[in-house]
Amino acid sequence: MKIVIGSDHAAFETKEFVAELLLSLKIEVIDVGPASAERCDYPDYASALVKVVLDQKISGILLCGSGIGVSIVANRYKGIRAALCRTPIDAEMARKHNDANILCLGARTNSHEEIKAIIDSWLESEFEGGRHSDRLKKFQNLGETC
After folding, report:
1. Is 97 one of the catalytic residues?
2. Residue 6 pairs with which residues in a beta bridge?
3. What angle do CA 12, 18, 21 make, to 5 degrees?
4. Torsion on CA atoms 92, 96, 101, 102, rounded to nearest 10
5. pLDDT tens per residue, the chain (146 residues)?
6. Which of 9, 64, 85, 104 is labelled catalytic?
7. DSSP state string for 20-42
8. Annotated catalytic residue: which of 97, 104, 132, 146?
9. C-alpha span between 98 and 1 (Å, rounded)
10. Whole-angstrom Cα distance, residue 35 to residue 110?
11. Catalytic residue at 132?
12. pTM (predicted TM-score)
């Protein structure tokens, strides 16, 4: 398994924690940055991560201070289902019902212990398909206007 990760400066330390966690689970990590806690803009790293998710057809984990900004950016792209998860139940449902391909986390809103539990739940859950597939089809091709 391979997962791409990215963050902004506010979540740099937590991104490093996530990378170590994934590696300990024998998951290959692609880190799109940043390489330090120096100030940077989350849209740049969220967009870079989305490109890898779409190109390689793998899952991603995005982090910023709250998780809100990166989830907004990621969800601007067709084919992305980014879910901001604050609890293991959120992560489970994001996978089972929404087939989330990007997990978004807030470094300032969850502890490392909580983030580990959220990631564990997300990794252990699988898309259920069925009626959920029908729902996903309803929004997979939404355009710029309603």
Report:
1. yes
2. 62
3. 150
4. -20
5. 999 999 999 999 999 999 999 999 999 999 999 999 999 999 999 999 999 999 999 999 999 999 999 999 999 999 999 999 999 999 999 999 999 999 999 999 999 999 999 999 999 999 988 888 888 887 777 665 53
6. 64
7. HHHHHTT-EEEE---SSSS---H
8. 97
9. 20
10. 22
11. no
12. 0.94
Q: What residue spans define the domains of the chain?
A: 2-139
Q: How far is CA 98 from CA 6, 19, 91, 146, in A?
A: 21, 24, 10, 21
Per the DSSP assignment, residues forming a β-bridge with 62 are 6, 104
Cβ contacts of 73 within 8 Å, gap of 6 or more: 42, 43, 46, 47, 50
The phi and psi torsions of 101 (rounded to 5 degrees) equal -105, -5
Residue carrying the six token digits 């710029």: 144
Q: Look at domain 2-139 and name its CATH class.
A: alpha beta
